[in-house]
Specification:
Elements: H1 4-12, H2 22-28, E1 40-44, E2 47-51, H3 53-59, H4 61-68, E3 81-84, H5 88-99, H6 110-122, H7 126-138, H8 144-153, H9 157-168, H10 173-178, H11 189-212, H12 221-224, E4 232-234, H13 244-247, E5 255-257, H14 258-273, H15 283-293, H16 300-323
Parallel strand pairs: 1-3
Antiparallel strand pairs: 1-2, 4-5
Helix pairs in contact: 3-4, 5-6, 6-7, 7-9, 8-9, 11-14, 11-16, 14-15, 15-16
The structure holds zinc ion.
C-alpha cells in the first residue's frame, strides 16, 4: 500500500528529510513508487520509478506504444526500463496524480505545472489534464500573464487562457503594456495585441455603462434633490461628461446633480483603463465627490452611503457587460 503522508509532504515542503543533499532528495521522489509487482521502471532524471504497464497504458496511448516496442534495458530483477527525458519531478508529479486520484497535490510553482502539462500533452494523458488545468486556473488571478502563456502553450485556450485574459482586466492597461513578464517574450506579438485590443474593448464597454444608466431608482438623492442652489442637468441619461451645454438642455427627465456627473465621469475614466478590479469602496475617491455633494444640505448627508450602495449594483452591471465582449485568440499563431 502507498503511504500518503510522505507524498503530501513532498508537495508542501513539509518534508522532515529536506536537509539531505540534492541527489538524495531526487531519489526520495521515488519513495512512493516501490512495488513488488511492478512490471515497468520509468527512469527520469536518474531516478527509477516502479510502475505498472496496465495503469500507464490505460491512460496514455503513447506509453502503450512504447511498452510494445522491444527495449534493451532491464533492472537486476529483469523488469524493463524506459528512460524518459523529463525531470524526476515531472514524472513524480505525473505518476502521483495517476496513483493518488483522491487528493491532488497542491502545486506552488507555476513552472512545475507548466512542465507537467507539457508532459501530459506529449504522452497524451487526457485523464488528469483537466485536474492540472484547474490548479493552473486557480492561479490566474495572482499571475494572469504567466498563466495565460502556460495555458496557451499547453492547449488550454478555452479552459484557462480566457480566464487569465479576464483577470488581466484587473490590471491597468498601461501596467499590462509595460510590466515585464518574461513569458511575454515567448509568444507572438500578434497575440499580445489581441490581449491589448480585448482590454481596450472591455475598457470602452465598462466606461459606456456610465452613460447607459437610465435614471431608475428615483430615491437616489442625486435625482431627488430639487433645491435651486444644487446645480444639476436635465438629461435622459447620465452622460459621461460634465459639459455645460448638457447642463442647460431642457426636457422632462429628472435632473442629475452636477456633483454626481463629476463622480460618474471620473468613475468612467477609471474603468476605461482598468475595467475590472477597481476598488469601488475606495473611500478617498468616494469622499472627494461626497464632499462636492456636501455643498448642498439635501445631497450632502446621504451622499457617501448612497454612492456606496449604488456602486454595489453598478459593479455587477459592469461585469455583466464585459462578459459579453469576445476575445479573439489565434491559437495556431501563438508561439514564436
Ligand atoms: Zn442637492
Amino acid at each position: 500500500m502507498l503511504n500518503r503522508e510522505p507524498y503530501r509532504r513532498l508537495f508542501t515542503g513539509d518534508n522532515p528529510n529536506n536537509d539531505v543533499p540534492g541527489n538524495d532528495e531526487s531519489q526520495n521522489l521515488a519513495d512512493n513508487f516501490q512495488f513488488d509487482d511492478a512490471d515497468i521502471i520509468i527512469r527520469a532524471g536518474g531516478v527509477d520509478f516502479q510502475a505498472h504497464k496496465f495503469i500507464l497504458s490505460h491512460v496514455s496511448p503513447i506509453f502503450k506504444d512504447m511498452f510494445s516496442l522491444p527495449g534493451n534495458q532491464t533492472s537486476q530483477k529483469g523488469v524493463p526500463i524506459i528512460e524518459l527525458v523529463e525531470s524526476a519531478q515531472v514524472i513524480h508529479d505525473l505518476l502521483s496524480m495517476l496513483y493518488h486520484s483522491v487528493n491532488d497535490p497542491d502545486f506552488n510553482n507555476l513552472n512545475d505545472i507548466h512542465r507537467l502539462l507539457l508532459a501530459l500533452r506529449k504522452y497524451d494523458v487526457e485523464k488528469i489534464c483537466m485536474r492540472v488545468a484547474k490548479q493552473l486556473e486557480a492561479k490566474a488571478a495572482e499571475s494572469p500573464g504567466r498563466v495565460f502563456y502556460i495555458a496557451m502553450s499547453s492547449g488550454l485556450v478555452d479552459d484557462v487562457a480566457r480566464t487569465a485574459a479576464w483577470h488581466m482586466l484587473s490590471q491597468n492597461i498601461f501596467d499590462l503594456a509595460t510590466t515585464h513578464v518574461p513569458e511575454y517574450n515567448q509568444f507572438h506579438v500578434g497575440t499580445f495585441q489581441q490581449l491589448l485590443r480585448y482590454h481596450v474593448k472591455c475598457g470602452d464597454v465598462a466606461k459606456e455603462q456610465c452613460s447607459n444608466l437610465r435614471p431608475q431608482g428615483l430615491d437616489w438623492i442625486w435625482l431627488q434633490c430639487r433645491t435651486s442652489d444644487c446645480k444639476g442637468s436635465f438629461s435622459d441619461r447620465f452622460p459621461d461628461t460634465s459639459d455645460d451645454r448638457l447642463l442647460s438642455s431642457r426636457n422632462q427627465h429628472p435632473s442629475v446633480k452636477r456633483w454626481w456627473l463629476d463622480y460618474i465621469s471620473a468613475l468612467g475614466e477609471r474603468l476605461k483603463v482598468q475595467p475590472l478590479g477597481i476598488d469601488y469602496s475606495d473611500e478617498g475617491f468616494l469622499k472627494k465627490y461626497a464632499d462636492g455633494a456636501s455643498k448642498c444640505s439635501i445631497c450632502g448627508p446621504p451622499a457617501m452611503y448612497q454612492l456606496t450602495k449604488f456602486n454595489e449594483g453598478f459593479e455587477k452591471q459592469v461585469r455583466a457587460a464585459i462578459e459579453n465582449v469576445p476575445l479573439e485568440l489565434d491559437e495556431d499563431d501563438f508561439l514564436l
